[in-house]
Specification:
Layout lengths: L11 E5 L3 H24 L9 H23 L5 E5 L1 H8 L6 E7 L7 H12 L8 E7 L4 H24 L6 H7 L8 H28 L4 H6 L18 E6 L2 E5 L10 H16 L4 E6 L3 E2 L4 H9 L8 E5 L3 E2 L13 H12 L11 E4 H4 L24 H8 L26 H11 L3 E4 L7 E3 L5 H20 L14 H11 L4 H18 L12 H21 L4 H30 L16 H8 L10 H26 L6 H4 L1 H13 L1 H9 L8 H19 L2
Helix pairs in contact: 1-2, 1-18, 2-16, 2-17, 4-5, 5-7, 15-19, 17-19, 17-21, 17-23, 19-21, 21-23, 21-25
Amino acid sequence: MRSEKKYVPPLFETKRARGLVFFRSFAVTLFVGICLILFYRVSNIPRDGEEGRWVWIGLLGAELWFGFYWVLTQALRWNQVHRLTFKDRLSQRYEKDLPRVDIFVCTADPVIEPPVMVMNTVLSVMAYDYPPEKLAIYLSDDAGSVLTFYALLEASRFAKQWLPYCKKFDGQPRSPAAYFVSKSPTGDGGGQSQTMDFTAIKNLYQEMADRIETATMLGRIPEEARLEHEGFSQWDSYSSKRDHDTILKARTFDTIYLAREKRPQHFHNFKAGAMNALIRVSSKISNGQIVLNLDCDMYSNDPLTVRDALCFFMDEEKSHDIAFVQFPQWFANVTKNDLYSSSLRVITNVEFHGTDGYGGPLYVGTGCFHRRDILCGREFSQDSKIEWKKHDDHRRQQSVHELEEETKTLASCTHEQNTKWGDEMGLKYGCPVEDVITGLSIQCKGWKSAYFNPERKAFLGLAPTTLPQVLVQHKRWSEGDFQILLSKYSPAWYAHGRISLGLQLGYCCYCFWAPNCLATLYYSIVPSLFLLKGISLFPQVSSPWFLPFAYVIFAKYIYSLVEFLWAGGTVLGWWNDQRIWLYKRTSSYLFATIDTVLKTLGFGDTAFVITDKVADEDVSQRYEKEMMEFGATSPMFEVLSTLAMLNLFCLVGAVKKLIVNDSIHRLHETMPLQILLCGVLVLVNLPLYQGLLLRKDRGRMPCSVTVKSSLVALLVCTTFSFL
């Protein structure tokens, strides 16, 4: 008789999201409404020579774009799936054969990424519930700062007390700063013993933090520390953060500091270059089969996260084609109503589940577990399982010093010359979003990824606390995504046939972020100006064509609100999200589009801007009160302010004309949609008007921006009225 294959319970399950039939039916009705709007535009185009012909054609173009982009967004919602892991089964089958895991923490500037914050991230991953001999932590310091190295030494000493404490009391979260904020000495009911231990470990942490912060403030380390550890001699030949030798110090085999070599004449490729140096160096020291990379502010919030990720890599039946496992980006400092829409709530709780249904999410640069062999360029095959039971103990045959000297060359400026690094191996170069293009290229080889959004957030970081930071961050993201669209790895053509159509459309949705600015700017300016002039651009209430406009507008935004609330947001949070949506499209995306076009034409270079993780005390207080922070002159602010003032002038001017002409009663019949559009644009800009005209604190809009934007808006409105 033929023997049957023994059933092995899976390590993870995939379930289809609920309510998809209802959503798809609703989406079909919305699609019909959009088609009717476009038919109305096409069939009512003014003839040659008639007033408003080109304005009407412009509206048709904008609405075609909005319709096209809406279709792309539906791909992210059409086939949502959710994952469930079984860590108990993993432990039962593989506890003695768990693979080595290398964790990369990347920092680049001790001023805007404080060493104390970085060390909390490092300590949180040191304390994972995982065999310590199979865990190696690498800190990449792209500034080559002696302050960061000093902080790592202090953190390593503190870890000797912190790790046993976490194991004894199952302390969570395991970032000390977050733990002491969220816990009290008697909060867990652990009795007098835990209270004493809590107080002692908290005092030790505070002493460590004080020493690190003092050194950071003074810009130098204590002399006794320099004498105590020979590693500080590496900085004797240090010139600047852009000109120094490789600095590689392994205090133990499991905690390694790396500052790759930097020279002014060699381009260093930003974070992608740092990650590739880490991949090479770690391959000689620990050679973990799984690699986790984290931003320096993204601390681990769950000590079991590594085991969750391994469930996807070690399942006997379904793991052979999984290249990376992406966890969501969550933030610990988001306000109740998410003032700047920093949580990316809908992307995290809805859209990435949609990409997962088509072959996996994007790689977003942090909170991501990779198979090392695939990250290093392994080609896809159906029989690509990895041997987890192998052990690489060659490193134990050498001393720490010998290993440091042997490995330094792997992080030199010239090591990558005439190699495949940055192209076919490691993270790809030449793009501000090196993570997204790297993940796309991996998936185009045939590999898949998985998205795991556990109930307990796996990682928590720091969101921007000022509007300039938010806009600059989104400019970098949208610019990078747009560059991918125009690159040889474009999801629009290169990915065709290599990944599923749904995932291809999902990538395009993000790659088309930047071009959204054109249609949004047109809709934010032209209807308002024609409202001021008294010319209707939309159907009147009495027209049957009013119905598809009304249905699409209200159905789309009601669904958006319901979706946002389902994702855990608030009504005011949704309103804030709509405001930031407008601000991004009319400023960040505009400048991203301009810079991308200039770079494509050879007039610009790729730049990488680090988001500041430090905020002044008064800025933090305003942020906690959910007061929008301006406080600086910026071309983006000038655009936003001019648009806001233009819509305000148009609305006031139109109402004034109607009152003077005694035709206010006809307003709701002749131009209801233009009044609605202009009115919403004014309402959504209320915090901006406060910053321009009413506020007196340091977070207000600079007076120069107020004057300039008001004059430009007034000039445009006045000129247009007389045309």
